[in-house]
Write a structure and sequence with these properties.
alpha+beta, 7 strands
Length: 158
C-alpha cells in the first residue's frame, strides 16, 4: 500500500519583468502564450467550442495538448480597469490529466517606485483539485518559473 504524501494543492510563482506593464500585458493572452513560452509549439483558438468564452488549444513541444478556457479577464478598451489579470481552466488534455481540475490566474502590476520602477510584477497562481499529488504541484511550479523567465527574455529583446 502506498501512502500519499499530503501536499498543498496550490502554487504561486512570481517575477519582476524589466519591461513596462503595457508591453508585458500585451503578451498575456491565451492565444499568444506561444509567443513567449518556449515549451509551447503553438496556441490556437478552438472554433465553436464555447458560445460564452474563448477556448484556446495549447500544443506543447513534447506532444501534450491542453484545451484552456478563459474564465475571467480584465477588460481592455472602453471598459478599461486598473486590474490586469486573466483566469483560465484546463477543460481537456491529451494525454489525460492525473487530477480532476485546475484553475490558474495570471496578474500583472506596474512597479511604480524603487529600483524596479517601470517594470512589471507578474504573479501566476494555480489551484488544483484535491487529487493532485506533490509531483503535479512541483511540475506546475517549475513550468511557471520557466515560463516567467521566458517572458522576461522575450520582452527584453524588444
Amino acid at each position: 500500500m502506498t501512502t500519499r504524501i499530503p501536499t498543498s494543492t496550490s502554487v504561486t510563482e512570481s517575477a519582476v519583468i524589466a519591461a513596462p506593464l503595457a508591453q508585458v500585458w500585451h503578451l498575456i493572452k491565451l492565444q499568444d502564450f506561444h509567443k513567449f513560452w518556449s515549451k509551447l509549439e503553438k496556441s490556437d483558438y478552438v472554433k465553436g467550442a464555447s458560445p460564452e468564452t474563448d477556448v484556446v488549444q495549447w500544443t506543447f513541444k513534447d506532444g501534450t495538448v491542453l484545451d484552456v478556457k478563459q474564465e475571467e479577464h480584465s477588460m481592455d478598451g472602453w471598459m478599461q480597469t486598473i486590474d490586469h489579470y486573466i483566469t483560465y481552466s484546463v477543460i481537456a488534455s491529451t494525454p489525460a490529466l492525473t487530477y480532476s481540475s485546475v484553475i490558474s490566474t495570471i496578474r500583472c502590476f506596474a512597479v511604480t517606485s524603487g529600483a524596479n520602477e517601470g517594470s512589471t510584477f507578474v504573479q501566476w497562481s494555480a489551484n488544483f483539485s484535491s487529487d493532485a499529488d506533490a509531483g503535479v504541484i512541483e511540475d506546475a511550479r517549475f513550468k511557471r518559473k520557466e515560463a516567467l523567465a521566458d517572458l522576461a527574455g522575450v520582452v527584453a529583446k524588444k
